[in-house]
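Structure ticket #2291
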Amino acid sequence: MTLRSVSSDFAAPDGGFIGPSLCWWTISRARPMAVCRDIGLHLDASVPAVTGTLPPGHPFAIRATVLTPLTAGGSEHLADGIVEVDAGGRIAGVREAAGAATAGVIDLRPLVLLPGMVDLHAHLPQLPNAGLGAGLDLLTWLDRYVFPLERRFDDAEAAARLAPAAFRAFAAAGTTTVLAYGAVFKASTDGAFQAAEAHGIRAILGKVMMDRITYDERIDPATILDRSLRESEELIARWHGADDGRLGYAVTPRFAVSCTADMLRASAELAARTETWWQTHVSEDPGEIDEVHRLFPEARDYVDVYDRAGGLGARTILAHAIHLSDRELARLVETGTRIAHCPSSNLFLASGVMPLARYLEAGLAIGLGSDVAGGPDLSIFGVMRVGAYSQTVRRVVADDTEPTLAPLDWLRMGTLDGARALGLDERIGSIEVGKEADLIAVDPRMTAAMRDLPYDPAEVDAADVMSRLIFRSHPDMVRRAWVRGRRLEGPPGPA
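Resolution: structure written out below.
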């Protein structure tokens, strides 16, 4: 047997593949096997290589396992299916491969084809800080880690350095649609849009608005409100609806602690007038909630602050919403306001655990968000895992008798429910004929406990496939991502 060190190499000598790591190839007469020190995976030579060359654009047809929620309810699981993407980047067919013509079909078996993940809450300039500041309360964490970082995301050059890599990272994690905050600076937000336009990801972005607290010391405080509104409107005119709606704008007052009532009201009016989204934070941290009560004594509660500003409604995404009162919950449901559930961030910053089942039972519209860098991982699969554990903890520790979500429910929340929260569910969120081809191809073999066992998609239940993708997700398991059938840079691709 011989040992050879290989660094950052996706292709194994036996035709399989692994993620970037430091590995030793053990070559023996019996069976070659790669043993990866840092991730503990074993890639057996018996695992078949993925075949076929994927085109950079459309049209094309893919043969793979297909797993998707359905708009009418339930899900579809084809252990061996074919998905056709037409010349316009839309899904033209979804069918069983058995008995079907396969000439020209790209065979990606045993990869699993899923709808692209929808991330309803992320902070683009914060990605370099992911994983820093664990255990700090929200307001301390913002002051110590976030504001200094965002202060440096101040011009087009800063955006050109960070944004392209950030969008590649989202795609590599399986996210094809992202709703994200920029910083307070117009130039870097414009640069981030340019990067999203070039990359191909579906992105809704917004320049952060802050007039009570701000980290931009170069601006006259007396001009912040008017300037922020003007710059936001200029960005809307350039980017909202660009590329037939692939890019969009979200008016973005940071949260009530950093905004005056005038800023909240004026930003909500701007969003309504321009038919853009309105995004901010609500009820994330007990200290934050206390501060909102102090700053807005006339308001009944945190949600009422935004209600008085005219900010609630179907095009509003509020992140977190952990500690809602019954009145707040009822008002959000009544107005059709959407929520980005960010369980990874909520635990990382010790903010609390959302009573998710109670909110869903009440009819609240909820999708998932990574909240990077409050959340330490931008993978929505990782968010699902932490969310599932969090709800289990509520049952065990808090005697919460509400049912927890099953793996296929988490898939729906991370895809179709996120699309619905954005009002885009007629376009994306599931693999169904007529929808735009926002897809990801995932290798389920990378989630196996022992890599030298055979994998037969026909013998794996749909819920079990998703359970492995959630609870044993691997950072390199997303092998391809597409938006409207256009391949996104980021995922490493099949071997």
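Closing remark: Confidence is low (pLDDT under 50) at residues 1-48.
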